[in-house]
Design brief:
Length: about 700
């Protein structure tokens, strides 16, 4: 488990470690005529204010003599005065060096191999140190410390006691490992020791070798590292779990001690929000509804494809969820335009914790991880300033305040919203229009359990309910109202208009779907790709007339939900005839999907009938614009539409034919340009069976 807690770092000054080396007055006195069998004995005294505070009685210190090699001296302590004595077979006329620990290996050339271990015991106390070469006859020596200490002071406020097992510090740069230093050339006046450049380990672990129970009184854990400045992560392991602290910054001086204060607390446990119901988005201050019956989704929903996961199809959703580990992370609908929230890159990411909010009694604490996930994905120009949030488990409401940032296409935002569960019965449409004998299906987008439905005029329309779908059948021309009721007694109504059956002389129907067959010479599947016979057919596209669009009929809804929906509005505003039609039969993407907006086709049926040839009996269709955003749109209502003419998109007019008998539409070789690439439309639209 992880516990992200701020750490207070405190520095402790360390005393300078000095060693004075003196020849003993009596024991080390060299006689005029020594006996070879007795040898020569030398005693060095360590100053009380030097490195001696690290050395206890019976400890050993290493001695290096060029002509003799490596020796060991045992420390003696009397009245706080530390001395060490060693013997040689001949009188010394050369300089000697002192080093700690005594177990370090010294080569014949005087290179001492030392180590700052990456794994240490809490009882370890040896700090690598060396002296400058010093004469034992007149001598004063300075011991040069090669390491630094960090004291991790570990306390705990957790309800359950825990036994400390180890502490690990992992940094971005190496701070431990083996190295060498040449004793004959040590210079104590240097502020740094270049020998430490051989370090290779970026982490150090101190293991406890005695039981330490964590509580209010801190347990000090001393770690030996190389001097330097480090940034990294501290992991505290106990018998109850592992706790990680990030953004730990330490500057450790040579021979000094730096303190890091860490307090363990009960870890935050995340809380699962109810994502099985739709939500309304309310403006927090006014309480007005921004959007109705929207969705939220957790990472668990996305991975397991549960609840409303099917509505989150934008590829950025998967990219964001791959960055977060907790399955309770929830995405809320983001930027709202015309009452429709965005379920893609502007979605808001929230994590709720199972801990009461101090500022909002009765509510759970929540964290806004990202005000728009594009910022977390490091999209250029997108920024996130989280603000605050909380969750009310009684009402199910998620409240966000000052959720701010910038969307890369030029929009600064600051959202204050409440996401409140909506238990109203809702339908995918409020009204439908259909012909006599035709059947229209309307989805029940949300209900409390199963539903029943009845019509107030069965002579006009009948209705059946199956698996949250209403099937409305037109009986005779007229109007009817269908009332739907769920298990909570919530109701919703659907207005039904039934028109007389077509005699075959009506205009192009826009209340049905069409299939597209790409004919020879059609290049709109791709500007550089000619489709094969295997992929010439596109299924289930819509037509939308100007009258449909402004009446917001059911068949026009795909045009409202398409990318850049304002393009359709602009086009229908300057094309003033109600029978002007936009067809999704325009440019078809490489994935086989049609375009409902700026690359759609605009056309209009005429009264002219062809009398002979291939299209005899058909009515002429004027293709007004092969690429509607490339059209030469005039200004209307004071709006200058120069910006509407997409650069590199050119529109051409042309001819098509409508067959009143089978309701097919054939567009004959109409050209255009997409991003300055020539495209051609030659296709047949047939009513879907």
């Amino acid at each position: 488990m992880k516990n992200y807690t701020y750490i207070i770092l405190a520095s402790l000054a360390a005393s300078t470690l000095l060693l004075a080396c003196q020849k003993a007055e009596e024991p080390g006195q060299i006689t005029d005529d020594p006996k070879p069998s007795e040898g020569f004995s030398y005693t060095l005294a360590l100053n009380a204010d030097s490195f001696s505070d690290r050395i206890a009685a019976a400890d050993e210190v290493g001695i290096y003599i060029p002509s003799v090699g490596q020796l060991k001296a045992t420390v003696d302590v009397k009245e706080n005065i530390r001395t060490l004595t060693f013997s040689t077979e001949k009188e010394l006329t050369e300089q000697v060096s002192v080093f700690v620990p005594a177990s370090a290996n010294v080569s014949e050339e005087g290179a001492v191999s030392m180590e700052i271990p990456s794994r240490q015991k809490s009882s370890d106390k040896d700090m690598p140190a060396v002296s400058a070469p010093v004469s034992v006859k007149d001598g004063a020596a300075t011991l040069l410390s090669l390491g630094a200490y960090i004291d991790f002071n570990i306390a705990s406020t957790m309800a359950e006691s825990a036994k400390l097992q180890s502490v690990t510090f992992s940094s971005e740069t190496a701070m431990a490992g083996s190295f060498e230093i040449s004793l004959p050339v040590v210079d104590p006046s240097l502020d740094v020791t270049l020998a430490l450049n051989a370090l290779e380990s970026k982490s150090v672990t101190v293991e406890m070798d005695s039981d330490q129970i964590l509580g209010a009184t801190a347990v000090a854990v001393r770690m030996l590292i190389a001097p330097g400045t480090y940034s990294g992560t501290v992991t505290v392991n106990t018998d109850k779990g592992s706790y990680e602290y990030t953004s730990v910054n330490v500057t450790a001086q040579r021979a000094g001690t730096e303190s890091v204060e860490i307090t363990l607390s009960d870890p935050l446990v995340t809380y699962s929000v109810d994502t099985s119901v739709p939500y309304n988005i309310l403006e927090t201050a006014e309480g007005t509804t921004v959007a109705s019956n929207t969705w939220i989704i957790s990472k668990a929903d996305y991975v397991n494809k549960t609840n409303f996961a099917a509505n989150f199809t934008d590829e950025t959703i998967g990219s964001y969820f791959s960055l977060v580990e907790d399955e309770n992370v929830v995405l809320l609908g983001g930027y709202v335009e015309k009452g429709k929230p965005d379920y893609g890159y502007t979605s808001i990411a929230v994590l709720v914790y199972d801990r009461e909010s101090a500022e909002h009694p009765g509510c759970k604490e929540a964290e806004i991880l990202s005000t728009n996930i594009a910022a977390s994905l490091e999209w250029n120009g997108y920024t996130s300033n989280p603000g605050s949030a909380w969750y009310n488990p009684q009402s199910g409401e998620i409240v966000i305040e000052n959720c701010a940032g910038h969307l890369g296409w030029g929009y600064d935002f600051s959202w204050n919203r409440t996401y409140a569960p909506a238990d109203d019965l809702t339908l995918a449409a409020s009204s439908v229009t259909l012909k006599e004998g035709a059947v229209k299906e309307v989805e029940i987008t949300w209900s409390n359990g199963s539903c029943t439905a009845e019509t107030d005029n069965e002579a006009v329309a009948t209705v059946e309910v199956s698996d949250k779908v209403l099937s409305v059948t037109g009986v005779a021309a007229g109007n009817a109202t269908v009332t739907v009721k769920d298990e909570k007694g919530k109701t919703a109504q659907l207005g039904v208009t039934v028109t007389a059956a077509s005699t075959g002389s009506d205009g192009i129907p826009t209340d049905i779907k069409y299939d597209i067959t790409l004919l020879e010479g059609d290049t709109a599947y791709s500007s550089s790709y000619k489709p094969t016979f295997a992929d010439r057919e596109i299924k289930g596209i819509w037509l939308c007339s100007r009258a449909d669009y402004f009446a917001q009929t059911e068949n026009s809804s795909p045009f409202y939900s398409a990318k850049d929906p304002w393009v359709n509005s602009i086009y229908f505003n300057y094309r003033t005839d109600d029978d002007v039609i936009i067809a999704a039969a325009g440019y078809i993407g490489g994935d086989g999907t049609t375009n409902y907006a700026y690359l759609a086709i605009g056309f209009q049926l005429t009264s002219e009938t062809v009398t002979e040839g291939e299209f005899a009996g058909c009515k002429v269709v004027n293709v007004l614009d092969s690429v509607i955003s490339g059209a030469d749109a005039p200004a209307y209502d004071g709006h200058n539409l120069d910006w509407f003419h997409s650069v590199g998109y050119d529109s051409e007019s042309g001819t098509g034919y409508y067959n009143p008998q089978d309701k097919t539409i054939t567009i004959v070789n109409v050209g255009g340009k997409k991003e300055n690439k020539v495209i051609n439309f030659h296709r047949k639209l047939s009513p879907q069976e």
